[in-house]
Amino acid sequence: MSADNFIAEITNVTRHTVGTNDDKLIYYSGSITSDIxxxxxxxxxxEDPNIKEPNIPIEVKYTNGYQRIGVPSRMRKFMLWLNQxxxxxxxxxxxxxxxxxxxxxxxxxTANYGKLLIKDPAAIxxxxxxxxxxxxxxxxxxxxxxIPFMAIESIDIDREQNEFGTLNSYQARVPPSLMIxxxxxxxxxxxxxxxxxEMANSADSPFYGKIGVQRxxxxxxxxxxxxxxxxxxxFKHGAIEQLEAEVKLEYAKSFWQCIHDWHEMEWEDIxxxxxxxxxxxxxxxxxxxxxxxxxxIIVASLDDGAVDWENVRTLISKSTTPGSNGKLDWQKSGxxxxxxxxxxxxxxASALQRMIFR
Length: 358
Known about the structure:
It contains 11 helices and 13 strands. By secondary structure, the protein is an alpha/beta fold. It starts with 7 loop residues before the first strand and ends with a helix. The mean pLDDT is about 90.
């Protein structure tokens, strides 16, 4: 096949073969420069009626698509990280060549070392936001950087989709909060990792500086892992779980600001050491309780697709004022003394549900 039939080539590539003849997998490793990555990759995306025109710097194809389209702000955030690190080690992006990349060995004595001739773009299995960040950076400074890659040869769409699911479902056992912080930068397509990190680091977040990103400090209230888990609970409803990450972030900030506004006395704990705190509201128990109730409150406050935050405040207020439905006792020495963690949070959530929705 002549060189005219190829759109690009990648040199210094190693070919790997794993498994047996019955279940053999061939993949290639090396680096792709950021000046050509845009022309040789695409995102196999699901159709989304809310996105009429994808606003990302990577080609999008919907045929047999299975991924969400990436978030431009996360790509730019990775670009900013690259700007701050002249040397870096990042996970390889993972691609599926779909039989469109041809390997040529450089010599018969080095049969597994050579180059890839690219006929058509490869599908991105993992690394959308990293690739987008590299593309944005090249567009801004025209400096071609190496992007480590792993390209799998000729697997079918079902297996490709399964690999995507596996990569985004299982993580190595390192400290969970550190994994989440890394995911927010390096992209495992985990929106909640990014939202949790923004809740920790954004100056307009009610929890700014109070979430332990890598380890818990004496003045911090929650681990990043606990915040991520409870953000997943917060949006566990069909009407809001498919919202864009940026929208979920704003909703989470606004929801906890409403809680703050109706719990000024309890919120004074935020500047105390944990041992000196008087209430459960800003313990993980309180985080769990409100996160369980949150989706019902938010969905009950939807008005033509937008949240009526005054209604959210009204619903929250029902648990703060004495009346026929009672007032939630947040004192650590009070009604729920000794009730902590998941069990305590679920118990308090049940009480909140009764007070708010009775």
